[in-house]
């Protein structure tokens, strides 16, 4: 039987849409048993036509449709978005020549929803360094911030999600910006375990990171793009021009997505992480505000743990640019730097040494860091060879402890 998905969308309340769908063919094993899912917005979206509100579903499943030469059948679809599909598909094809991107989207009605866009812009906002740097770059444009919940923490952990919303609202309020929260079950539809086996084999990466998340996130913005007649939506880049890593969110894909009359901009691709730390630092100084960066995903925490590589890295990036991490949502205890040094010696391994080598270069440029006895270990540490086999036992013991802590934490947060 040919691989096929047929989907319909209904407005359930003035801020909730529901998708019902039927899947035929072999590739149904790459979907979970769920045959409907909801997306709720903290904004009223009842005026948004179906040809727009179908977009988040389409962008969520398109990579699977392409990979398995399937047919995705919708009733109505926005014309500009539909016409952009081939353009952003080319980005995927170029990125992963080892995958054949076939498949097609068919419709009953192609709808022209074009509007005269105004000057308003929006930005996807997670609270991380990339997103906050994008906020810093475009603060004068007063972007509407968009946060999607259901991405890295499942919606059932509402206690944690509520705390995160509060944290993000705090930054939005600091800069007098509107923030729209979206709760989406989009990740619960894909059988990630099954599809990851295929993507690991083909491109040595997981499906979410390699193929799904970029356009799936962008699709959620279609309804707000239409509602606010947005000029553009920014999505912050995680990588920097020249990086060798492949990722579903890339300028060759994101910049080609059209949401009716609204353009999408993959933002900050010209900045390194350390440049982004500087951008955020400048923002805080210029407006004399406090911000709470949220970079840590250890134990699905709401606050930064200040104990993992990502926290350490961000803290040192801020220090390298002359900023006090305590003003950015980190709490540095006594002996913090000694702990970092010891963790690098005994526990931490690095997948990418690049970020720490940039920190090393930046430290070398500042005498006050070079001469600081707590920090100057960075200058001589060999980050290139820090993934030593001897650390594996400690690293994995620590990983098991972390996993147990995470389970306890999540059970308590339900
Ligand atoms: Zn952390």
Shape: globular
Rg value: 22 Å
Name the strands of the widest sheet in spatial order: 5-4-1-2-3-8-7-6-9-11-10
Query: Number of DSSP helices?
Result: 16
By secondary-structure content and strand pairing, the structural class works out as alpha/beta
Q: Round the mean pLDDT to the nearest integer and report it.
A: 92
Number of domains: 2
How much helicity do the residues have? 40-55%
Order of helices and strands: EEEHHEHEEHEHEHHHEHEEHHHHHHH
Unreliable segments of 5+ consecutive residues: none
> What are the bound molecules?
zinc ion
Largest sheet: 11 strands, mixed
Distance from first to last alpha carbon: 41 Å
Q: Report strand %.
A: 15-25%
Tell me the number of strands.
11
């Amino acid at each position: 039987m040919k691989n096929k998905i047929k989907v319909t969308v209904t407005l359930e309340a003035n801020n909730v849409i529901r998708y019902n769908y039927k899947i035929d063919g072999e590739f149904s094993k790459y979907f979970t048993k769920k045959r409907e899912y909801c997306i709720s917005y903290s904004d009223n979206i009842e005026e948004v036509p179906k040809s727009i509100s179908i977009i988040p579903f389409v962008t969520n499943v398109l990579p699977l449709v392409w990979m398995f030469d399937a047919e995705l059948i919708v009733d109505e679809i926005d014309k500009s978005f539909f016409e952009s599909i081939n353009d952003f598909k080319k980005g995927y094809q170029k990125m992963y020549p080892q995958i054949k991107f076939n498949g097609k989207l068919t419709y009953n009605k192609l709808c022209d929803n074009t509007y005269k866009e105004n000057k308003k812009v929006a930005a996807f906002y997670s609270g991380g360094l990339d997103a906050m740097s994008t906020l810093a770059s475009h603060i004068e444009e007063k972007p509407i911030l968009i946060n999607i919940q259901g991405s890295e923490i499942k919606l059932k952990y509402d206690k944690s999600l509520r705390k995160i919303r509060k944290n993000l609202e705090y930054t939005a309020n600091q800069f007098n910006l509107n923030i729209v929260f979206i709760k989406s079950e989009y990740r619960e539809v894909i059988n990630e375990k099954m599809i990851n086996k295929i993507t690991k084999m083909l491109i040595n990466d997981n499906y979410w990171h390699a193929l799904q998340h970029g356009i799936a996130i962008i699709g959620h913005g279609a309804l707000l793009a239409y509602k606010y007649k947005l000029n553009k939506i920014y999505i912050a880049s995680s990588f920097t021009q020249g990086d060798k890593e492949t990722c579903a969110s890339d300028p060759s894909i994101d910049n080609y997505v059209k949401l009716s009359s609204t353009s999408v901009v993959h933002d900050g691709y010209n900045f390194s992480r350390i440049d982004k730390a500087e951008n955020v630092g400048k923002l805080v100084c210029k407006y004399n505000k406090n911000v709470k960066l949220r970079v840590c995903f250890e134990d699905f925490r709401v606050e930064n743990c200040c104990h993992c590589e990502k926290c350490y890295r961000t803290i040192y990036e801020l220090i390298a640019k002359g900023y006090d991490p305590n003003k950015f949502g980190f709490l540095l205890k006594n002996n913090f730097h000694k702990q970092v040094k010891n963790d690098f010696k005994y526990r931490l391994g690095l997948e990418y040494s690049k970020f720490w080598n940039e920190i090393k270069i930046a430290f070398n440029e500042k005498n006050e860091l070079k001469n600081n006895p707590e920090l100057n270990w960075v200058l001589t540490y060999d980050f290139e060879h820090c993934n030593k086999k001897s650390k594996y036992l400690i690293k994995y013991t620590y990983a098991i402890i972390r996993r147990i802590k995470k389970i306890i934490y999540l059970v308590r947060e339900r």
